[in-house]
Amino acid sequence: MTRRAIYPGSFDPITNGHLDIIERSANMFDEVIVAVLVNDGKDPMFSLEERVEMIRAVSRWSNVRVGTFEGLLVQYAVEQGAQVIVRGIRAVSDYEYELQMALMNRRLEPRVETVFMMSAEAYSYLSSRLIKEVFKLGGSISGLVPPDVEQRMKQRFPS
Ligand SMILES: Nc1ncnc2c1ncn2[C@@H]1O[C@H](COP(=O)(O)OP(=O)(O)O)[C@@H](O)[C@H]1O
Ligand SMILES: [Mg+2]
Relative to the CA of 46, which of 39, 57, 82, 153 has its CA 20 to 30 Å away? Predict the structure, then answer.
């Protein structure tokens, strides 16, 4: 059986923390689908298409592909033939919300298992939100996002 995992998120934009989780997932599962959430209600910095493009540009694993989804994640997982949802955990603060979602998703679809992964320590404080804040205030984000992403942010918001 093909072990297929979905790694869902907003990815606005993708960071080195996300990439670390993608790499760990690619090593662990036969196939990984990075799934960008279509309507997440947050006012995004990058459009859905831009976020997908950036992930494609920096994802260098042959068993990783990028998709988009709206509606119920577990429904998308079943449609894609995925048995696993991957989520990243940074600190205890992520845990409560992630636990709620995982248990709700299990109730909705017991066949899909949620797996939590920890990124490398160096990325454990990284979030897309913080990256955007620091960047907008003129701080350096180099080493925290892929160079392609940094380039795009500079093009979008020239200082
Ligand atoms: N630096 C990081 N280390 C580990 N996991 C991370 C990191 N940044 C984000 N994640 C995880 O990646 C997933 C997608 O994150 P994100 O793009 O913020 O989407 P969401 O809006 O679903 O939180 C989440 O499980 C999040 O906890
Ligand atoms: Mg988040």
Answer: 82
